[in-house]
Structure formats: structure tokens, C-alpha cells
Amino acid sequence: GKAVRIEGLAGPNALNGHAGLALGLSGCLVNRAAEVKGQFCDFDSNFSLEFAQSAEFQFHHPVMLDKDILWLTDSEPTETVVSAKQKQMVFIMEKSVAIPDPSTDIRVELEFDLLDEQFKLARIRFDPKLNAMMNPEVMDRAAIEAGSRMMCETGYSLASKEVELDLSAQSFDDLPNRQEILQLLGPPLEHDPVAGSFSYEYRLKGSEDDPFNTRFTVWFDDSGEKLARMESRYSHFHSSTDFINKKMRVQLKMLGG
Fold first, then answer.
1. Phi then psi for 34, rounded to 5 degrees?
2. For a disulfide at 216, which of 6, 105, 115, 172, Cβ 3.0-4.6 Å?
3. Distance CA 110, CA 112 (A)
4. pLDDT digits over 189-201, tens only?
5. Across 91-100, average pLDDT
6. 3-state secondary structure 14-56
7. Per residue in 127-161, is it b (16+ CB within 10 Å) or e — as a string?
């Protein structure tokens, strides 16, 4: 099929010090990750996912610390705002051009509450552009239950993992088409008429390092209009969704996995 590919960058000096930090954090981080794993065994009591102008994932009983997130994302936030009881990390991705258009920026906000004298992750808010790409129809009750069951059963560790999610009960009729994607993301930076592909490049705002750390690829069906498959990669996290066969694969690649 025809493809749209989005590529991007990691944060400045993202890897500096991470090996040493991993040694110091790994034990405690694994314990906190294990606690989050247990929370997924009862999704309704511990989490909520809301779709309004932007998607927001809420942690009812926050566990993960701000330093855990910095290690997991492999990036420094574009903006950090700290008050007496809250911390906000903002990651802004911009197009890799000489003069980026701020209207095409992609913004993700992480909010931490001060609990037990530590900042713990309480909310993740996604850019409306990502909200449109995520499509609430994919995240219906069955998908949430399946994803929670997957997390409950497989858990999390600092080793690589791969799991597959069955989306056979989902409807993808409302996914954005080719033109709507172009409207969301703006004109492509590269067009390959032979491969029938559009290419976009993004970087963490203000960064010039690691040009291929983040990727987002969309393939269309034979008509060239409807989404057939989507892949994304950011830092340790890889995902692939097949809209034709209705399967989603999620990978966590860590420790050289």
C-alpha cells in the first residue's frame, strides 16, 4: 500500500548518564513498575481514560516518579513547571525544518502530584492531533479490558517484551483518511512518487540530537485513501496496528533488546 512516514528526534543529550542512572534506579523502578502492573488487574479502580478536546489518561493512585519517567522516555522535557504541590513536564515535537510552524507542533503533557514528598505521575494529556489519530473508537471498553488484562498478566520488567492485542471487535470506520491526515500534520517534507509515500520529520523542540529516535508510519489500502496499517516508535516503545487484520502489537525494547 501507500505510506506516510513520520520520523523524529530524541531530547538533547538524552543518553548521557542513563547507564549510571539505570543502575541506581533499576531496583526501585522495578518495584514501582510491579505495583503499576498490579493496578492494571483492576483498571476501573486505578485508572480512567477520557476523550474530550484531547485524550487524558488518569492515574487514581499514582506510583511512578518524575525521575522514572525521565529514564523511560530517554528525553528531557521541553518545558518543566513546578509549584508547591505539582510538577508539569511538557514534551513538544516540532517539524525538522529551518523555521518550524508552531501550529504543527505536537504536545504531550505529563502532570505529577506531590505525594509522600515525591512527585508522582497522575495525568497524561495528549495533543488534539494525536487524539484524532488515536480514535476513541479503538479504545472502547473491550479494548481497555483486553489491554488491562495483558498488563496484569505480563507485567513490566527492564527486559524486552512483546505482546499482541486482538482488535477484532473494533470498528475503524471513523479513522482519519489520507486527506484528513494531511490536514492534521500539514504538507509532507518529502514525497516519493515511486514508493507512493510522504515523509515527515520531527524533533523534540530545541534538540539537534538523535535524528531517528521517533518514527510514525501510516500505510493506506489499495485505494490510497483508507488506513491499512500504522507503526510508531518512540524511545523504548514500539507499536504496530494492522487495521485490516485487526491486530495490535506492542513492544518494549530495553537493555539492548
1. -65, -35
2. 6
3. 7
4. 777 666 566 777 7
5. 83
6. CCCCHHHHHHHHHHHHHHHHHHHHHHHHHHHHHEEEEECCCEE
7. bebebbbebeebbeeebeeebbebbeeebbbbeee
